[in-house]
Design brief:
This is Serine/threonine-protein kinase STY46. The chain has about 180 residues and is mainly alpha-helical. It has one domain: Orthogonal Bundle (Transferase(Phosphotransferase), domain 1), CATH 1.10.510.10. It has seven helices and four strands, in the order ααββββααααα. A two-stranded antiparallel ribbon has the order 1-4. A two-stranded antiparallel ribbon has the order 2-3. It is globular and about 40 Å long. About 35% of the residues are buried.
Amino acid sequence: MPGGSLYDYMHKNHNVLELSQLLKFAIDVCKGMEYLHGNNIIHRDLKTANLLMDTHNVVKVADFGVARFLNQGGVMTAETGTYRWMAPEVINHQPYDQKADVFSFSIVLWELVTAKVPYDTMTPLQAALGVRQGLRPELPKHGHPKLLDLMQRCWEAIPSNRPSFNEITVELENLLQEMEVN
């Protein structure tokens, strides 16, 4: 897409996002993921490099190379994705569902807030081993409290405790509305 990836936008240009822009990007991602999950598709590799921007800075979910339809039982088991954004249940080769994408989104959200690459002092394998043992990125001190709370709920170790993309979208839209009113 003309605007390139969100990863490049943030890391190659060293862009620190204003909260309103960050929320708009996050909402765009959530709406794309709502659509996929509504059609029983798990992306399985949600990360900023797979989020493309159009000429109007609207973020689109891309790279469906490892995306799969959710099977009849509603769970999957194959490990796929990128370690720095991967859910612990995927790393552990346990059954997983759409909530694995929610975990990956939490890391994307952290990246949007901090403008840093997750676990940048570790190799991808070290990051994966850490996540298996409960490691999560350090919460930024400057983040909006509601955003930090959402982030933590999205990276919960127990997948069923994570919110759905529908719920996340509502929270983010409410926060954006609050900001625009104030």
